[in-house]
Amino acid sequence: MENNQCSVIVDAEEHVLGTITDRDIRKALLKQVSLDSSICEVMNKSPTTLSFPLEVRDIRQKLGKMSFEQFPVVDSQQKVMGLHTNQELMQVRFPNTVVLMAGGLGSRLSPLTKEFPKPLLKVGHQPVLETIIESFLEHGFHRFLISVNFQSEMIENYFQDGRQWGVSIDYLREKEALGTAGALSLLDESLEHPIIVMNGDLLTKLNFRSLLEFHQDHDALITMCVREYDFQVPYGVVKLDGSYATALEEKPLHKFFVNAGVYVINPEVLSSIPENKFHNMTDVIGPLLEKKKVVSFPIHEYWIDIGKIEDYQQAHVEYKDVFGQRT
């Protein structure tokens, strides 16, 4: 048994009785416990376990406190389901569905979007939507729904069922433009976990695991990612009281937090979205603000919306330094 690795002791029905590590055996030998002694005298009778389904918050808290290389995963009846290493747990595949909104016309990027839908425009050496999917995959997310409308067949032909990337991809097919949230009315009502919704024209190095953990910690219905935006007035600003000037400020800088187009949404929110009708995310979030059920998650990492020509060109320049040369 290698240092700090773990074996699980179970009863006849596979309930966890305890665990034993190399350290436990060494401690017992130092206490001169006989090698003929029952393993029950040596094992840890109150082991640290992880409950299925695995939650990112639980994994991080326990792995951060313990030095063990392996952890038993148990079901609701404390029956062992497996023994997983730290590395495996930190690469856990989350059951949460990721919805990528890719049905827009991309009018601001015309004429580039006359032949290709915006999510298939290349930034770096591959379509922006492919980089988004790979970024989620790196953080353990593997279930995707892509909302499509304009030139939907091109998107579906490119990504198909996602098998090429080792993920599952299905599609929310909008018969007409449904706004920034209307496509969510097409989701299966049986969803059990919060969904992550992201616009299909964003590039970011956001840690999606941390986002999901933040949402769980704050017991929110919706977590909305925000980004700081600076705007400098190019003139001296004059404050007036009637006809009298009371202040003059030269080219003031104003700072705002803007909606970054990434959300975590609890399944119970989806019932408020009218089916197959135009509906924006502001319509979903607005009624929940007074209830204090919407929290914000600031994005400090790289983030860019490629919806305008100048931003699309900027993303091209920055792509290799930010994302590397993906293969």
Automatic annotation (TrEMBL):
Residues 99-320 form the Nucleotidyl transferase domain. InterPro entries: CBS_dom_sf (IPR046342), Mannose-1P_guanyltransferase (IPR050486), NTP_transferase_dom (IPR005835), Nucleotide-diphossugar_trans (IPR029044). This is Nucleotidyl transferase domain-containing protein. Gene3D superfamilies: CBS-domain (3.10.580.10), Spore Coat Polysaccharide Biosynthesis Protein SpsA, Chain A (3.90.550.10). It holds the Pfam family NTP_transferase.
